[in-house]
Amino acid sequence: MTSPRIVCDAAILGAAEALAELGFDQVVTLPDERIEAGVLAEADALLIRSTLRVDERLLRRSRLRFLATATVGEDHVDRALLAQRGIDFVSAAGSSAVSVAQFSLAAMSILAAKRGRALADHRLGVVGCGAIGSRVAAAAERLGLEVLRFDPPLAESTRSPAFRPIEEIGACDLVSLHVPLTEEGEHATRGMVDQRFLTRLPPGSLLVNTARGEVVDPEYLIAARRSGRIGGLAIDVFPGEPACHAGLLAHADFASPHVAGRSLEGMMANSESVLRALCAHFGRPWHRPEALRAPAPEDLEVEPQDSPVDFVQAAWGLFALDLALKEVAGAEDEDRARVFKRLRRPPYRRDLSRMRILGEPGPALRRFLAALPRR
Hints:
Layout lengths: L5 E4 L5 H7 L5 E4 L14 E4 L7 H4 L6 E4 L9 H7 L2 E4 L5 H18 L8 E5 L3 H12 L3 E5 L1 H7 L15 E4 L17 H6 L4 E5 L8 H10 L2 E6 L10 H6 L2 E2 L8 H18 L16 E4 L6 H9 L1 H9 L6 H11 L11 E4 L4 H9 L4
Parallel strand pairs: 1-2, 1-3, 3-4, 4-5, 6-7, 6-8, 8-9, 9-10, 10-11, 12-13
Helix pairs in contact: 4-5
C-alpha cells in the first residue's frame, strides 16, 4: 500500500512521532509559517492548528484529499472551498472540552475571589452548551450555583425547556461564553456580546470568555467595564490574535494567551482526534501511539486552608501569565504578538484532575475538586 504524503504542523503535540509509530513514512513536519502552496503541491493530507489560514492562496496548487485541524475552532478554514475541491475535513471538536471547562471554572473562581464573593453566590449564564459549555454548566451546578443555559440553536433543535431564551441573560450576574465563531444566519455569533447583550446584565456582573475573541464587540465591552456594568472580566481569547486587543487587555481583571485548551492532556487529545481520523480516511489500523500517552499524574501538596484559587495558582501559575500579558498592554502590536506567542509555548500545564493531591484539602477545595469535569 502506497503511503500517503502528509504535511504536518510542528505545533501538533507528538504528531511526528505518532505518525511514525502508526506507519506513515512520508511525513514532512514544518512550522506553520513554512507551510505554503509549494509545499502542498504533492501532499495528500495536511494536519494543522489554528494559526494557519486555509484558503484559495494556500490550496491553489494542492492535490489534497484530507485536511484536519487539531483544534476545536474551524474559523481559520474555508469549508466551502474544501467542499468544492472534494477535500475531506475534520476538526478535533470536543477533544479539549475538559481542559477548557476546567480553565473556565478556574477563571470564574479568580473573578469571584477578586470581588470577595463565593463562586456559589452567583447565578451563572452559560452561553453555548456544546461539549464545553455543557460540562461547565454541570460542574457549576455541582458547586452549588444556579445555572441558566442559553443556546438558541440547540433550543430550536431540541425544544428542551432546559434552554432559556437569551433575553433572560439579565437574570445572571456571571456569564461564561462557549460559542463557536459563526458569521451568518439568525444565530451568528460574531459580535454577539454587544451593547444590547451587555445592558441586559445586572450592574457589576462578571464575564468570562474562553470561546473566540470575535464573539465580543471590544468597544462596548470596554465601555461596560469602565461604567461598572461589567464588574469583573476574564479573557483567554482576543480579537486580532496574536496581537491581542490592547484595550481589552488593559481592562481585563485576568487575561491569558488563548491557553484554555492547551493543557498537556488537551493537546494530546487534539492530536489523537485528528490522527484517528487520518487513519480512518486512509484505511490504516489505529492504536494509541506511545507518543500520545500522558505521563503519570503530577503531585501537588495542599493545606487545609487552601482555596480553589490557591490550588489553581499553585498548579498553573496563571497570575504570571496575566502579568506577562499586562506588561505589554501598551506596546506595539508586534510586541504584544511576540509575547502572546511565547507564552503559548511548552511546557504545558496538566489538567487539574490529573493532579495527585498530597495533604488534606479543606471543605471548599474538596468541593471544587469533586466538581471538576474529567476525561
